[in-house]
Amino acid sequence: MMISKTTVNKMAPYVYSQLDNQKQDIRVLTLLPGSFEDPIRLVISHEVFDQADYGREQSSIDLSQYRVGLPPNWDVLATLEGRIVYNFADPQTGHEHSSWTHPDPGLKVGGSENPNIHFKEDKVIYEALSYTWGHGKNLQTAYVYSSFAEAQGNTVSSATMELRDNLACALKHLRYLDKKRRLWVDALCINQSDDIEREFQVSRMDRVYISAVRVIVWLGPGSESTQLAVSTLSHLGRQIEVSRWGSMPSPGCAEPSWYHTGSVLPYNDQAWRAIYEFINVSWFERLWVIQEIQLANSNSVVLCGAHEISWRLLRRSLLCLSMKRAIIPENIMQCILKSLSLTLPSREQTLQTSLYQSRFALCSKPVDKIYGILGISPPRFVRQLVPDYRAYYGEAYKTAFLEHAKIVCRFELFGWCSLSQPVMKMPTWVPNFSKVCAPFPLQNRGICYASGFSRCHYSYKPGKVLNVLGLRIATVAAVSQSAIESFTDLFNIFNFIQVEENKNNRYVTGQPLLDAIASTLSCCFLSERFPSMGTSVLSLEELKNAIMTHPGSVIKDKVVEQKLKSLMLHVQGRRLFTTKEGLMGLCQDCTLPGK
Amino acid sequence: MPRLYLTRQVIKMNSILKLIELTNSKIEDIVIIVLGSMTPMIIRSLTTDGKFQVVGECYTHGIMDGESLLGQLPPFWEVRPVIDMSNGVKEPAYWNSETNSTSRDDPRLGELPAEWERITQRRTPDDPILFAPHRNKLTGEIINSDPRMLPNNLRKRGINLEMFPLV
């Protein structure tokens, strides 16, 4: 189809007409058919979007009805999509087996069918696109028609839109040759230059993605290795099932041992490289895509160029890989750990968990660290937090903190405060949700109960001062010169200590001093305290041995090294301090007073 | 709360750990326990107006299990958190090495005041990590924390609570 230069010049940029918020309107984009190289032609229409009509997939299933008559060591679980699966943990081998049907075929309990995704008849039908905006270079012109009548037989539209490269590329891949395709695309279906409209649409983005026929993830145009990555990851995904409590072999799968943390995958360098290239793209790092994919139904797919993999298989394969730390190339592990906010089940998640999981996710506006996860945040909190794109982002952080404290009656978000990474122009008690450097909140490791089961007591009048009720404990006496960055620093600290000389010294609690120092350096995340996590957490003796016998050198023992890495997650970025009263601990990396 | 205040030991510990002693007398960093905060906080007094800046949360060895408010655990008791498999939350549980048994009740808390009762409520995402729903039998009021940790009851234990103005 040819569009001459002279006609293009006459065309005006597309002007959005206002959405009727009372009627809950949304815009839907219809991508007109064409071959790959044709210009992009589309119609944007307003459609009534009934709030009440969205149906989430069932998230909580009563499993007790399925437990009837289960033999010992069998359990029943629900997969990520809510399918019932029976699981047998072999007490002899420690391995698991699974089945879609009850181990006693004579018993008629429950169904094992896939849960249905319920759509109302008169629902607005569209697929929602999840993609990254990318940079604004290389714009491509799209032709926007005001109606289908205008588009009929007409090559010339009344208006144009400039699309970013990545979106234009996605639409060309998504376009059908012979039929229309209805999509919801944030950059086009929300008038991005209208703050008021954006605030309203952002607050109901969750429903747009939940109600979509399916979500289509666009990773980019792909490369020569994409096909190998897709086939490798699809095959891996078919070998495992994942429930909220962990993974198991998929019933009847070809490789029943692959789900296991320790089992090795038979991939050559080429396959690993293909996987790395597939997941090392910006989609896996962006903040907004978290709720888009977390709210997506199980029909959703991931597209990379001409290749497609279902989200349920990709998610399983990435979760499976995330549990195989010891055998996975480090560069792939880094990508996979970042993608956990997309792959781990997020339903019924607390705010501080969502914030923690998305801490490395990227967004262009700091305020989106809060607004971008409203779709997966707790309902009472979401009702209190109305997006305001016109105000300074620090105000949104402050509101989020105060509303959360009011609802939860705890100061769980204090962990994000840091005098070394403050929110500019805000009081220091306002948490910095866009901080990107360690340390991250300790409470996410679930190891601190300093004020027991107490609620917070505070008073706040609009202004700077937040009065909090508490107890004065100690005065800081000394701080280490720098923060702990790697476990070499742990060796170094222990290296200073004359072990023999201090063997009989004691900490203020009566504990041997060396034990107290080692406990402090681990924030007490030790197997003595968490016996049930014994295999993944160091014991006090192991830690002491590791940091005393390998000063400054790389650990030879892989298992100990893994455990030390896990320990560093909450120690990194903290300084050692002591108080005048003889206490010691790890504090934030802030500037020293008087220096 | 440990009561062994030994200046000499602190100085020794600082030299053992190669720590830098803070000498600026105008600025003071203090460790406080804030009710409703799982971690102790370090706050900084700046001037003479009595207000504080938040330096940040901290790990402080020996007071992470509520010792500042409730005292040390009795002999044979230690905290061994249990993981609630339905939500991954680690809640404190108390293990007695003498009887080799685990209890969800903190042995330091004593009896629940007569007007309060523990109730069972399904945890929602809007509930705190440390969730302990209780109902007041007289007023019908429901709180999500332990009534024995309310300020009045803590003051009865001799805890000297104060308001910290944070800026």
Kindly describe this structure.
The complex is a heterodimer of chains A (595) and B (167). Chain A is of the alpha/beta class. Among the domains of chain A are: 5-54 and 120-213, no CATH class; 365-468, no CATH class; 476-588, no CATH class. Chain A has 20 helices and 19 strands. In chain A, the strands form 4 sheets. In chain A, strands 1-9-8-3-2-10-7-11-14-15 form a 10-stranded mixed β-sheet. In chain A, strands 16-17-18-19 form a 4-stranded antiparallel β-sheet, covered by helices on one side. In chain A, strands 4-5-6 form a 3-stranded antiparallel β-sheet, with no helix packed on it. In chain A, helix 7 packs across helix 10 and helix 8 (269-279) packs parallel to helix 11 (330-338). The longest helix of chain A is centred in the last third of the chain and has 16 residues, at 393-408. Chain A is globular and about 90 Å long. The termini of chain A are far apart. With 167 residues, chain B is an alpha+beta fold. Among the domains of chain B are: 7-57, no CATH class; 74-107, Ubiquitin Ligase Nedd4, Chain: W (Single Sheet). Chain B has 3 helices and 13 strands; from the N terminus they run H-E-E-E-E-H-E-E-E-E-E-E-E-E-H-E. Chain B has a 3-stranded antiparallel β-sheet with strand order 2-3-4, with no helix packed on it. In chain B, strand 3 (41-45) and strand 4 (52-60) form a beta hairpin. The relative contact order of chain B is 0.13. At the A-B interface, helix 15, helix 16, strand 17, helix 18 and strand 18 of A face helix 1, strand 1, strand 2, strand 3 and strand 4 of B.
